[in-house]
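quick one: T4K bound model?
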Amino acid sequence: MHETSVVSRAIPALKQPIHVTSPLLPDIQNLHVRLREVWEKKWVTNNGEQHRQLEEALKNYLEIDEISLFNNGTLALVLGIKTLELTGEVITTPFTFPATVQALDWNGLTPIFCDIEKDSWNIDAYKIESLITDKTSAILAVHVFGNPCNVVKIQEIAEKYHLKVIYDGAHAFGTKINNKPISRYGDMTMLSFHATKLFNTIEGGALIFNDPALIEKVNSLKNFGLVSPEEVKFSGLNAKMNEIQASVGLEVLKIIDEERTKRDHIRRTYENELDEVPGIRIVTMHHKESSSYQYFVIEINENEFGRSRDWVHEEFKNYNVFTRRYFTPLCSDFAWYSHLSSAHKKNLPQAYKTVSETLSMPFYGGLEKEDVIRICEILKSFYSKVVQ
Ligand code: T4K
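yep, here:
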């Protein structure tokens, strides 16, 4: 294979560094007013007024029945898994952020890695069944980059084998499936409200679910297992969201629709600019009614584009553009899983291919259209015709 062109860097670098995301921050004056109320009440954590308001506001916004707020998404997932009393093995995806499988580790569970789909990068539901053993208690699937999993097939398998289903929806705030909130599928869904997420409370997260019978246990587990001031029913943790986080969330919620509209424009600009570039595939699904608008991710086929994903990622830095290689390394590559046969490379061909080809592009409402166009021009200038 021979490359016929050399990058000339004819396009000037961006003036300011452009990162993969930038936090959506509320108006500081409005936040100040809300924080003043908190200060006056002197009730700063442990189920305060802002916390209660945020739970109600999110129930309305997401059209969901049950929610429990947490101080981050990872602890929400750890305690969601504990709530469901999972045991033994849990079938999951290797193509995710470390937190997903670390939540299994903290519950003493063994992940069984299942390969992913070529088109969505989510767990391949058709490969789950062959991994089920008499130790399997659940499926932990991730709505990767906010694209929903094959929830119908996963549910079918779960019912057939009496498995629980828990979704890591860290990227899926506001994602809908067939016009229904994602929490309608599976036993529980975790959301992350980290600063890098569309909806954020700086650090934060939530569990959302349908079964009201779970709420007492979930709320107790995040509060040391207490069910009353002097009764400890479960072995819990401290994972509560405080009043400052909840205040930020209430103010961010006011501006989130505007942010989604801005991201929709950016998405269209990217799609228009990159539509016909050989070797570039856009996978992140963006339909205004159903998308989380969390990430904009492309796949780079080296044979067709003439440059590898890693080359593009490095070269972009010379232009002040800082993309990310989520989720490198695959979780199945962690040293402590090397004894698992499901973690072997030969069992995860699609995951290994995907993890070497995907690139998260800058994507946040504050990005100027001209900058998006410039980023696309830079990317197009990398294209290198390949003579086989
Ligand atoms: N499950 C999945 C599938 C997840 O993706 C995550 C988290 C979790 C579970 C766990 O949820 P949490 O416990 O976090 O709620 C970031 C986030 O820290 C992490 O929340 C997120 N996923 C992951 C995909 O991305 P890093 O290591 O990429 O963060 P960092 O600090 O490099 O930030 C990325 C870019 O964002 C920076 O280059 C610039 C920008 N940034 C970041 C921060 C923190 C800002 O402009 N301002 C900021 O304050 O992990």
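Confidence is low (pLDDT under 50) at residues 1-6.
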